[in-house]
Design a protein that fits this description.
mainly alpha, 3 domains, single chain, 407 residues, globular
């Protein structure tokens, strides 16, 4: 990857520029206020720092342990100030941009890679989350590593490439449980890439086995300490319930939700998770049976909300208007990728489709889409580069025709 000196300088510049943007943002603007999720992560990190470790039953399992471990390491190494966590996140987010550069270079071309990295370096929503106590920067870092390793893996028949992908996917899932079902999607992606037969089966098996080995210690811990089978986390059921009613999609609807859906007293955390999931699915079923057209409209609205909605219900128009050019060019980029035979584009496309399906069926928030926005931006960049090159090619043909006509 780094054989040419100019590539080293370019990569160093991308990293330094992205890091500078984030550090300047940290210096100029105040860090966002802590939300309930951030407080939960910090509380878990402090448990680890106090020496209680994972053996303490109070260690939260609503989210996976990866981000609290990351916070605890940062605070232990660089001091007790949360700014140290944000600075390390800024470094990791800059490394993410370098990985996105290689992903887009491997799938498309160097122009697309540069434009993607440049836009992502200044992408305000990514910068905002990097300045927050939020799991998205670490999650996006591991997810980008998984996507990059997958790009290399599908070009090789060696299983160890897929083992690396499985390890990175496991680390991604231990940061946020969102990706725990990606191994089920991976065979479909291989088929779309034209990978079939025994070798592909073994490669996919290698990925799944290494993925399971990475998350297995946490699953065993939950069973030993809590006497519950919790593979990753218990937050899935509540987001299914949140996404089952238009009233529950924003913060204002949460009090009503918790008042009307109360788990049985004495239930374990895994049982509560199943209770919330069943309640959400039941609401969907009742809605479908009593008002089929309304249900279709509700699901269509949820699908649209993925691309602009906040849990607070504010700034929807601002987000949508600022993102609309990216979305339009991304759709054009998908068309161009298909026309030009960019088969490897199925890798980021499958990840985008996975996140869309998962959060559409659960809770549709724009924040949940931030980890796959590098690939939406990459597709948009490919469309821009393609249009530019076609325009220049057309202009060159016109110039040649004019010269021939004048002669």
């Amino acid at each position: 990857m780094y054989s040419k000196p100019e590539n080293k300088k370019l990569i160093a510049f991308l990293f330094a520029f992205s890091l500078l943007v984030r550090l300047l943002t940290l210096a100029i603007f105040p860090t966002p206020a802590l939300d309930s999720s951030a407080i939960s992560h910090l509380r878990a990190a402090y448990l680890l720092m106090d020496g209680k470790g994972f053996s303490d039953p109070s260690f939260q399992v609503f989210n996976p342990p990866g981000y609290p471990v990351f916070i605890a390491i940062c605070l232990s190494l660089f001091g007790g100030d949360q700014v140290s966590v944000i600075i390390v996140q800024a470094v990791m987010d800059s490394l993410t941009i370098v990985m996105v550069y290689f992903v887009m270079k491997g799938i498309f071309d160097i122009e697309t890679a540069l434009l993607s990295a440049g836009i992502l370096s200044l992408y305000p929503f990514s910068v905002y989350l990097t300045m927050s106590i939020a799991s998205e920067p670490l999650f996006t870092f591991f997810l980008s590593g998984f996507v990059l390793s997958s790009v290399y893996a599908v070009r090789s028949t060696k299983p160890w490439y897929y083992c690396v992908s499985g390890i990175l996917l496991g680390l991604t899932t231990l940061t946020r449980g969102t990706t725990q079902f990606v191994p089920l999607m991976f065979p479909v992606m291989l088929i779309l890439l034209g990978k079939r037969g025994r070798e592909s089966f073994f490669c996919c098996t290698a990925l799944c086995l290494t993925f399971v080995l990475v998350i297995l210690p946490w699953t065993v811990r939950n069973y030993v300490v809590l006497d519950e089978f919790i593979p990753v986390a218990t937050g899935g059921g509540i987001v299914v319930l949140m996404g089952s009613s238009e009233n529950f999609l924003t913060i204002d609807g949460k009090p009503e939700m918790y008042q009307t859906h109360i788990p049985p007293a004495g239930s374990k955390q895994s049982q509560n998770d199943k209770f919330y999931a069943r309640a959400g699915l039941k609401r969907h079923m009742v809605h479908l049976q009593t008002d089929p057209l309304g249900f279709v409209g509700f699901m269509a609205k949820k699908l649209a909300r993925l691309w602009y909605a906040t849990e607070s219900g504010r700034n929807h128009n601002l987000i949508l208007l600022s993102q609309l050019p990216i979305y339009v060019f991304a759709v054009i980029g998908v068309i161009f990728a298909r026309m030009k035979g960019k088969t490897s584009a199925w890798i980021p496309l499958c990840m985008v489709a996975y996140f869309v399906a998962l959060h559409w069926l659960s809770l549709p928030l724009f924040r949940y889409m931030i980890p796959i926005m590098p690939y939406v931006i990459g597709l948009a960049a490919f469309a821009i580069v393609t249009v530019k090159n076609e325009w220049l090619r057309l202009g060159s043909r016109v110039d040649v025709s004019n010269k021939q006509a004048s002669n």
